[in-house]
Amino acid sequence: MKMVQTKPLKFNKISTSQRVAKKHLKLHVKRLRDLEYSRLREMVPSIASKEKVSKVTVIEEAVKYIDELHKALLERLQRKVYTGSVEECQRV
């Protein structure tokens, strides 16, 4: 009995047009990501005026800024609650 050799199947072979489409999609996603990092950088005062900032720094500074805003909001709410309770005590 004679054995016939067959070529192994290649499942991951893609056409040239698929390869080009994939490349364009990756480029589009990168541009969107870069745009969003730029928008985020503009919102954070500590890095908004800097020309070059790494993506890691953008994220770290954004987290710090959010934390500062959160603390300021809590302080404002606590003052409002405190002054409201003092005013109620004075009415009695």
From TrEMBL:
<dbReference type="InterPro" id="IPR011598">
    <property type="entry name" value="bHLH_dom"/>
</dbReference>
<feature type="domain" description="BHLH">
    <location>
        <begin position="17"/>
        <end position="69"/>
    </location>
</feature>
<protein>
    <recommendedName>
        <fullName>BHLH domain-containing protein</fullName>
    </recommendedName>
</protein>
<dbReference type="InterPro" id="IPR036638">
    <property type="entry name" value="HLH_DNA-bd_sf"/>
</dbReference>
<dbReference type="Pfam" id="PF00010">
    <property type="entry name" value="HLH"/>
</dbReference>
